[in-house]
Input
Amino acid sequence: MALKGIIPAMITPYEKNGRVDWGLLRTYVDFLIDGGVDGLFPAGTNGEGPALDPEERKKIAEVVVGQAKKRVSVIVQTGDITTERTIELTRHARDAGADAAAVLPPFYFPHDEQALEIHFRAVAEAVPEFPVFLYNIPGNAKNDLKPRLVKRLADACPNICGLKDSSKDMTRLEDYIDALGPGFTVIVGTDTLILPALVMGGAGVVSAVANVFPGPCVEIYRAYLAGNLDLAREKQYFVNRLRSALKDGPYITPHRHALAMRGLPFTTVRPPFRPLTPKEEEQLSKSLRALGLP
Output
């Protein structure tokens, strides 16, 4: 299945006791697919993947793939702090039936290009027939994937076929697209850049906003495909305002509360994440109402 269009960076739901809520996860998969998305991206940044237990990450992959039932593409984030565990999680995603894996760099420790190249080659060569996307998120991983490194890896490993760029840098995104060429899939990871990325040759977005409100993001993509750039720009500016509303509070948590406002009980968090205060929740509700939502 092609990896393109609107792909929510899925949030992980928890029960009151802090365990992953598997039933709600299945409901959430259907909610997103019914919203018109083109793919699903579990266990990434918004899904708190690096903070989850490896066995939880494996089961999340299995549940999302199983519930999606091939209706949309599933790209599972499998990057970890060690090469060994990254390979383990990537092999599992393949065996679980995912369409691809997205692999963020090993995080916390700084690594030079040679170390990163060795790491990613080892991962790709461990699953030679399975599509692998590199995942550039230097603000979190602290290791930046330069276009020249990505080009070397793509040339060396045929199954490294795409990249998700969350640098928030449009020039960097263009550099990837230019350096890797039309056979390499580049997906942006920033909601404010959906339309600019599409215009410059990007394939789509892994979206935080679409976790809660897939509709406006889908409208950008469909308007672009239809050649209606005026409508696509209008929807992009709306998504920009919506993104700002969902960032008013602690990291990720406003998205959880907004989902609860839409009928999906996502408000439980795992420390050190915290829930919204009553004042923050009131402000979120006010901001969304001002946009005509939910």
The two ends are 31 Å apart (CA to CA). The longest strand covers residues 160-165. Strands lie at 5-8, 39-40, 73-77, 100-103, 132-136, 160-165, 185-188, 204-207. The chain has a mean pLDDT of 97.
